[in-house]
Write a structure and sequence with these properties.
CATH architecture: 3-Layer(aba) Sandwich
Order of helices and strands: EHEEEHEHEHEHEHHHEEHEH
CATH topology: Rossmann fold
Helix content: 25-40%
Structural class: alpha/beta
Number of helices: 10
Shape: globular
Distance between the termini: 55 Å
Largest sheet: 6 strands, parallel
Length: 277
């Protein structure tokens, strides 16, 4: 007899609630702009690669919080189609329940790294006058570089990426990197695309005893290097990428709040409707 899957709503902190507000405030004008285009008309879709169940619980208040799928579904004018992906069967079942009367919504169970490349991105091609807003908000280092690279090079996908610096700091970017689990190094390589992050994340420094030690760079330095890496693989200078969570100094200054322009100067992706790229 199969084991019944039990849904447990994720508890989220204040930063995650703010992040959801930011995503919603970008998705609304994005849909308005694409909906208004008539010559040619664009078929615009919303993609959430780590969709969750659609509902969270606030650690601050204990109240339920609308997740990114719920917020996307409530946007008016609506997107033409929605693709929600999650690897958790219970969360997928809850999403299917929520959208049971929405035929334009597709809920996919599985690893988003394969689902996006084989089932979703091929349906959002620029030559078919399709555009997609793709939210990549991984639970950690669960995203493959190939997905990010492909989305950027398609020129029909606008990405919002939550840079998983918390997982990096907790499991990979240690002050003594030789002690890091090889499994976590492999996860970092998969996210970054290779192991070039090692030279970026540390610099050599000689102490008073003449010993050379690797000193970890700031989160900001690592994030900026990742952005530069995106440019080198073909993304335009005004990259369709918003690095929403570069926490480092941000985490230490939460009392300053957060606006749609983050402290490192990244701006939300501009909706480029030009036809001759």
């Amino acid at each position: 007899m199969p084991t019944e899957m039990v849904l447990v709503f994720d508890k989220i902190g204040r930063w995650s609630e703010i992040k959801l507000d930011i995503i919603e405030k970008y998705a609304l004008p994005y849909s308005k702009i694409l909906s208004s285009r008539t010559n040619p008309e664009f078929h615009h879709v919303y993609i959430d690669a780590f969709a969750g169940s659609g509902t969270h619980i606030s650690r601050t208040t204990g109240d339920s919080v609308r997740g990114s799928p719920q917020r996307a579904l409530d946007i008016n004018p609506p997107f033409k189609e929605y693709y929600f992906i999650d690897i958790d069967g219970a969360k997928v079942d809850e999403l299917k329940r929520i959208v049971s009367n929405r035929p334009e919504v597709h809920v996919l169970k599985g690893d988003c790294n394969s689902k996006l490349l084989t089932e979703v991105f091929p349906k959002v091609r620029r030559k078919d006058f399709r555009r997609g807003l793709c939210l990549l908000d991984p639970y950690g280092l669960d995203l493959n570089w190939e997905v990010i690279k492909t989305a950027g090079q398609m020129r029909s996908i606008d990405m919002i990426l939550n840079f998983p610096v918390m997982d990096m700091n907790r499991n990979v970017l240690w002050s003594n990197p030789e002690r890091v689990d090889p499994v976590d190094i492999s996860r970092m390589n998969t996210f970054w695309g290779d192991d070039s992050w090692k030279e970026i994340a540390y610099h050599q420094q000689t102490n008073l005893f003449g010993e050379v030690r690797g000193i970890k760079e700031s989160n900001r330095t690592i994030a900026l290097a990742f952005k530069e890496r995106l440019h080198k693989v073909g993304l335009p200078s005004e990259s369709t990428l918003a690095l929403l969570q570069i926490v480092g100094e941000m985490a230490q200054n939460r009392q300053n709040g957060l606006t749609t322009t983050n402290p490192w100067g990244y701006h939300f992706p501009r909706v480029d409707l030009s036809e001759n790229d």
